[in-house]
Amino acid sequence: MKTTLRRIMLAAIIAVFLLGFLFPNPHPHFWWQKIPVFDIFFGFFGSIGLIVFAKWLGHNWLLKDKDYYNHD
Amino acid sequence: MINIPPAFIYIIGALLIPLVRVRRLQQSLALLIPIFAMTMLLRMPQGVYWQVQFLDYELILGRVDRLSLLFAYIFVIISFISMVYAIHIKEMGQHVFAYLYVGSTLGVVFAGDLFSLFFFWEVMAAASVFLIWYNKTPASLKAGFRYAMVHLFGGAILLGGIVMQVSTTGSIAFTPFDLSTLSAKFILFGFLINAAVPPLHAWLPDAYPEGTITGSVFMTAFTTKSAVYVLARGFAGTELLIWLGAIMTLYGVIYAVIEKDIRRLLAYHIVSQVGYMVCAVGLGTEMAINGAGAHAFCHIIYKAVLFMGMGSVIYVTGRRNILDLKGRNLYKKMPITLVLYMVGAFSISAVPLFNGFVSKTMIVAAAGYDHRPVIELMLHLASVGTFLSVGLKLPWGVWFGKSDGTEDEIADVKEPPLNMRFGMGLGALLCIITGIFPQTLYKLLPYEVHFHPYAPSHVVASLQLLLLTLAGFCLYTNKLMAGKKSISLDTDWFYRVFGYSILLFCTYPLNRLRNLIQTAFANKTKAIAILSKHPYALLEIVWYALIGQEKSMSELVQPPYEEKNYRIPVGIGVCASLIFLFLYALIYMRVAG
Question: Looking at chain B from residue 377 to 406, which residues have their Cβ under 8 Å from any Cβ of chain A?
């Protein structure tokens, strides 16, 4: 089950990768919009970057014990 | 046309609900009010209605144009859907306050002048706080008070701005403001509090998770989106808003990654999504304003669906934390709720064929047309974060999730009541209809739309973004789901800790200082009072001081007059009069005799 899902996902990623070349952005405003697979990298590194950054921020600063505000 | 502003349909309706004693009739009335309001809205031509003379000013209760109609339509639609979801609630007070809240929001939308805007603005805050308090937990009571304080503060700032505006310009018309004036800055500040723009946003993730299950669904729709509306009216094209909005989108997303409370996570995504709208209002172009309106419309629907979905989970399980829900295989027990929630989740994540795709992409494209690379990338990244938290993390944690073998089973879990499912279903249906047929929505927008969301390159780019976000999620699932129950610090820290410290400082050290000063002054006053009764004592004090003798004031000043020391007893008076009478009688008898 798990491997099938993985294969489907991989196939889908390859498909959108190829489709990116088939359908380039006809009206790019910025240089990255000219790259057909830009969103593949942006999605992947963006999501991982967000997880790592937010978790780091939470661990080091934002997350406190659940009784933190209990004085009030 | 019945000559009554839509706001008053709800307000009068809300007041009528308690008068109907039969439950079925009460439910019917609650559902008929939005239908009645909608039929009125559909027949309402554009123009200015309901001008009322107030003092020397003219209040306008019905400024009807494409922008106000767009917001009014969606507010009425969502009030109906939310009421369907809430109709099983037996406490009619909840319905009353919900409709007062909806009515006042419609009042804000149609207000053509600043006085009526302010009036409805305050009613909105006052009515909505009860939707939090009705949850009847100590946490909701406190959160409600904080919510009320923040909104009353915002209201006071807004009023200050309005008073300045009226006194300098002499007009109460609600028209675009000139941000170089102080009054406009105050008004903007008041609006930004309601739009939950960081750092003024903390009331939202603080209060919405503490509201009642059904009340929170109402709350997600009205306060922030009415603020977006007034910003679009008064501050379209303000550069500051572009940056504030873009920061908002990422701010909410980052908090959502670490959040474990299911409704608080969604609340942070309200901050994020409203960020898109605020940013679009700041861009101010026709396309951007269209995008803000369209996104408000879509957001209200899918956010209601998401809150209804999570509300249903809390309703049937009584649990609100991902850590208490993961690994319990809820997907087997509540599949319908899962499917309907996922429609909302796909919508907020801008998956093609769902409504977020046709509105959010319009705002991102507007940033592109305005040649703002940084803003475009920020909004783009926020899209990734949205799918990550709402589309993947939350459903995975709540319905699936890995079991670590220690969880207790949740007994007797089944789908929520029919009306709750029906409400969710209606919302989900609208998400899909507006997603597949965007023209139904675009026709309502303030300006003509020249945007084609389903251009092939557009769809492919979105699919690339979403699929690879999914890949990132799969790789980091364990890291994302890990953690223990905790509180995330936010700017409410300033009033919950810093503000509390100020309160403590005022209560103890400052109060002690006051007491000291007061006692010292009281003693001096007492001395002066005694001295003024016996002014000559002053001379004596000086005299004794000169001859070098120490005499205290009490020694010098005679003791005060005590009546009982000097009063002659009554008996003496009686005795004297008896003696006098006796002598008189004696003399009389002698003279007479």
Answer: 380-381, 384-385, 388
Nearest CA in chain B to A56: B258
Interface touch B384/A46, C-beta < 8 Å = yes
C-alpha B223: how far from chain center: 6
**How large is the ipTM?**
0.96
pLDDT in tens, B44-103: 999 998 999 988 899 999 999 999 999 999 999 999 999 999 999 999 999 999 999 999
Both tokens assigned to B35: 């239908």
Instruction: Give φ, ψ of B408 to 5 degrees.
Output: -85, 145
pTM here is: 0.89
Q: Which residues contact B324 (CB under 8 A, 6 or more apart)?
A: B317
Structure tokens at B251: 């701010």
Helix (H) or strand (E) holding B64: strand B57-64
Residues of A in contact with B463 (CB under 8 A): 16, 19
| CB proximity under 8 Å: B 169-208 to A | none
Strand partners, A64: B487
Nearest Cβ partner for A9 among B371, B380, B471? B471
Kindly report, residue by residue over B379-429, the tens digit of the pLDDT: 999 999 999 999 999 999 999 987 766 667 777 789 999 999 999 999 999
Tens-digit pLDDT profile for residues B303-345: 999 999 999 999 999 999 999 998 888 999 999 999 999 999 9
Q: What are phi and psi of B151, to 5 degrees?
A: -75, -35
Residue type, B542: V
**Which residue of chain A is at minimal alpha-carbon distance from B386?**
A47
Q: Under an 8 A CB cutoff, do A20 and B465 touch?
A: no
* Beta strands B47-54 and B57-64, pairing class: antiparallel
Chain A residues with beta carbon closer than 8 angstroms to that of B495: none
